[in-house]
Design a protein that fits this description.
Radius of gyration: 17 Å
Order of helices and strands: EEEHEEHEHEHHEH
Strand content: 15-25%
Largest sheet: 4 strands, mixed
Number of helices: 6
Shape: globular
């Protein structure tokens, strides 16, 4: 999707967790230590942040503002807490107002989600069970989103995301 749309970019969010596998700083996430992350919170540098799975995650304002002003649309991969914060912030933030659409990606089933987690090979059993509990709770909040995408294959999911994006681009908005 991103390679087909030159006016859309994925936002690189920040985290305090350790990189997994081949993840690279500035490409997959901005990997920060806890004290740096907390200093950025204190400075008001984040649109949203939360402690998820024992690590801090957040979206820095500087990753968003300049690109939106340049006419670039953005795609964020954030949890339900972050999406809720963006929806609330977009009510009053002039740059975000009318420009936030949320999509909940619904797994085919909790069993499939668990298989996907196990397939990554990056979490121990306790962590998998903890994540499954959180996922079960998050599924109950899907109705808070503008769209619910029922996940299938990766290519079908990108096709659905692209259809949502094209729908959003056709809406009339005042900027």
């Amino acid at each position: 999707m991103l390679t087909e749309e030159p006016t859309i970019e994925r936002v690189i969010t920040s985290t305090t967790r350790t990189p997994r596998g081949k993840e690279r700083n500035g490409i997959d996430y901005h990997f920060l230590n806890k004290s740096s992350f907390e200093a950025k919170i204190a400075a008001g540098d984040f649109y949203e942040y939360a402690c998820v799975h024992g690590n801090l995650y957040g979206t820095m304002k500087n990753a968003i503002q300049g690109k939106l002003k340049a006419g670039i649309d953005l795609l964020l991969n954030i949890d339900v807490q972050g999406a809720e914060t963006f929806r609330e912030t977009a009510q009053t933030d002039e740059l975000l107002k009318g420009r936030v659409a949320t999509v909940f990606i619904m797994p085919p089933s909790l069993k499939v989600l668990e298989q996907r987690l196990r397939g990554r090979g990056t979490e121990n059993e306790a962590e998998i069970q903890r994540r499954m509990k959180i996922a079960s709770e998050e599924l109950e909040r899907a109705d808070c989103y503008d769209y619910v995408l029922f996940s299938k294959t990766r290519s079908e999911d990108f096709e659905s995301l692209n259809a949502i994006y094209q729908t959003e681009k056709m809406k009339i908005r005042e900027y």
